[in-house]
Design goal:
Chain lengths: 252, 74
């Protein structure tokens, strides 16, 4: 059976020279991961350029575009509240980028979101934005985030370390969740696809098992499309929740 | 025991963490449907929280998966 992890290997597509930035060697080569991300970003722009026609009676493309936009808009509004509109561009960009990377991975050979480096970078970006917004909005009161009000003071010795830890672990869980879901899903798909061929060579009895494996591949593909959408949605939801924590610090 | 064999057993054992994630997801979706069927009008606005809970529960299972992959491929 072919190695199911082979699909996640990074290969160089276009060789470019290595440059030194402040003594750090940075390889500018375009790998398949970079190519997938560039393709996803291009697809988002092309899709929304085509979808935003502002027709009174929307076509199919415009309906899908407006549905996705309305989804994230409603999300930001319901979680962050009135201030949600301010963060909508950030949240929606993240959502669209992650969604198109996931969907693109279902059609082509490489999924950019199955690389931990990509998802952790996205998670780190979210949490740095949260910290930045928190300091800009609350100043030093930002640290109240780690000391929830309404508890007897001796509990703070226990509660504050836990709160700090749970805040620091947020970017890691945010990145690992997306990474794990995409990696796990694609590995399972390839393993079942490998079963089809391996069982098919075992004679007539094997064909029945082969057919079973094939039908599970089809079902799993449908599931993976759902997961691809759901994980982008969850990423947007969690971004909103984390932003809400620092925007409405007083009610924490 | 050979080191290779121990590696595979360890990866299998690491996946036991999925049991907890499975139970958690079952409890959560079950309770959501119980609430949703009793009060269908309130179901739609609680759906983001459902997915949030799902994501948080699932993350723990994913951690187990990541550990298993780390044991297998490193």
């Amino acid at each position: 059976m072919a190695d199911p992890m082979h699909q996640f290997q990074i290969q160089k597509v276009v060789e470019l020279p290595t440059v030194n930035v402040f003594g750090l060697p940075i390889d500018l080569s375009i790998t398949n991961s970079v190519a997938a991300m560039l393709l996803a970003a291009t697809l988002v722009v092309v899709f929304y350029a085509a979808a935003a026609r502002r027709a009174v009676v929307p076509g199919r493309l415009q309906t899908v575009g407006e549905m996705l936009y309305g989804l994230v808009d409603g999300l930001a509004e319901s979680i962050i509240g009135h201030d949600g509109k301010k963060f909508l561009p950030f949240v929606f960009t993240l959502f669209a980028f992650v969604l198109f990377m996931n969907i693109q991975g279902m059609f082509l050979v490489f999924t950019a979101t199955s690389q931990l480096a990509v998802t952790l970078t996205l998670g780190l970006m979210v949490i740095l934005t949260v910290v930045g917004v928190g300091f800009a909005k609350n100043g030093l009161k930002f640290f109240k985030l780690f000391a929830p009000s309404g508890v007897p003071w001796p509990l703070y010795f226990l509660l504050v370390p836990i709160e700090i830890l749970s805040f620091l672990i947020r970017p890691i869980t945010l990145g690992l969740r997306l990474f794990g879901n995409m990696l796990g899903g694609h590995v399972v798909l390839k393993i079942f696809a490998g079963f089809v061929i391996a069982l098919g060579g075992l004679g007539v009895l094997g064909w029945a098992g082969s057919l079973l494996a094939l039908s599970s591949v089809i079902a799993l593909t449908a599931l993976e499309f759902m997961v691809a959408f759901l994980q982008a949605f969850v990423f947007a939801v969690l971004t909103c929740v984390y932003l809400n924590d620092v925007v409405h610090l007083d009610s924490h | 025991m050979e080191a290779e064999a121990a590696k595979y057993i360890g990866a299998g054992l690491a996946m036991l963490g999925m049991i907890g994630a499975g139970i958690g997801l079952g409890v959560m979706f079950g309770n959501y449907f119980q609430g949703a069927l009793r009060n269908p009008t309130a179901a739609a606005q609680e759906r983001p929280m459902l997915f949030l809970g799902m994501a948080l529960t699932e993350a723990l299972g994913i951690f187990a998966l990541v550990i298993a992959f780390l044991i297998l491929f490193s």
